[in-house]
Structures are given as structure tokens and as C-alpha cells.
């Protein structure tokens, strides 16, 4: 019985959140609070300032949806940003595909253009590699620099050699040592 009531409340809250008038006003209010979405904003990384801005935004939401909580607010912001990014990626992919201007993907979400302020805030961050920046200098390398592109070139380079012959064990032992260095 309680679960049914919670489900109904959640459905009502979701329906209210999706209303055109409310969602439009919510996006406008969110856009005004630049420290919540603009990565280069001086207060973006100040947790207490962000928390204060989120509390003001929650107060605004609670005027329309009294049962809204901070958890729900953060979830709704995440959903909006995620949906915007999906639509944005679809547009970018259709542009890259070389389709004609008539065939370029058109966003299906009415609020896509209202969220355009997130464009430069949704780029992927540069990743950091955990691999060593240089290869070990102690590993001697006697592997050939170029491989033959055709069997005929291989025959010219190594007259009389064949795939069926035993491979050079020293080269493979060096490869295995290098692999062990990477794995361990």
C-alpha cells in the first residue's frame, strides 16, 4: 500500500517536472546559476557555493513540486544533461557521416535549444594514461622495422624461408619479456 502511494507520488512528480512551463522556467533558472554547470566558473569547484546554489534551485522547484528533494533535483539535472548530450551526439554523428543537409538529425526534445549553453561544457575530458611514458631502455630490440607486405616480398627478403620453418626464438623471447614488463 505504501509502495503504491510512493509510486503514484513519483509519477505525479515526474509528470509535473515534464510540464512545458515548469521545465522551461527550471532550465532558465539553472542557466542563471553558472557555477552549477560552467566548468571554468571560479566558483564551480567550491562545494559550499555549489551547495548553496543547489539549495536555491531546490527552493524554486519546491514552489511547483513541494515533495521534491535534493536527490531528485540532482537526478533531474543529470537526466536533462544526459538527454541533451545524446541529442547533441546524434547531430554530430549525422554531420560527420556526410549526409545531405536535409538528412541531418533533428533533435526530438523541445528543450534541446534551451540547453545549448551546455555545448562547450559537455566535451570529454582528456584522459590520463597509467602506462609508463617511455619504454625501458634495457630491452634490446632486434625486431625488423618493417614487415613485408606480400608473401613475394617475404621470399625476396629471406630466400628459402618459409612459414613452416621454426621461428627465431630470440625475437619471441624479447617480445615476451616486453609483454611481461607491460603486464606486471
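^ Assign residues to that structure.
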Amino acid at each position: 500500500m505504501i509502495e503504491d502511494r510512493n509510486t503514484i507520488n513519483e509519477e505525479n512528480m515526474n509528470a509535473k517536472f515534464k510540464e512545458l512551463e515548469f521545465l522551461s522556467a527550471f532550465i532558465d533558472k539553472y542557466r542563471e546559476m553558472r557555477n552549477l554547470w560552467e566548468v571554468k566558473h571560479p566558483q564551480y569547484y567550491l562545494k559550499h557555493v555549489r551547495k548553496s546554489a543547489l539549495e536555491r534551485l531546490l527552493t524554486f522547484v519546491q514552489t511547483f513540486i513541494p515533495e521534491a528533494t535534493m536527490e531528485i533535483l540532482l537526478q533531474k539535472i543529470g537526466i536533462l544533461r544526459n538527454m541533451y548530450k545524446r541529442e547533441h551526439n546524434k547531430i554530430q554523428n549525422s554531420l560527420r557521416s556526410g549526409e545531405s543537409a536535409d538528412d541531418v538529425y533533428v533533435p526530438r526534445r523541445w528543450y534541446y535549444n534551451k540547453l545549448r549553453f551546455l555545448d562547450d561544457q559537455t566535451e570529454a575530458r582528456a584522459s590520463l594514461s597509467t602506462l609508463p611514458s617511455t619504454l625501458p631502455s634495457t630491452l634490446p630490440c632486434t625486431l625488423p622495422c618493417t614487415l613485408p607486405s606480400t608473401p613475394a616480398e617475404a621470399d625476396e627478403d629471406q630466400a628459402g624461408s618459409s612459414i613452416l620453418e621454426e621461428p627465431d626464438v630470440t625475437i619471441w623471447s624479447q617480445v615476451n619479456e616486453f609483454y611481461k614488463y607491460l603486464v606486471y
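The chain has two domains: 2-121, 130-184.
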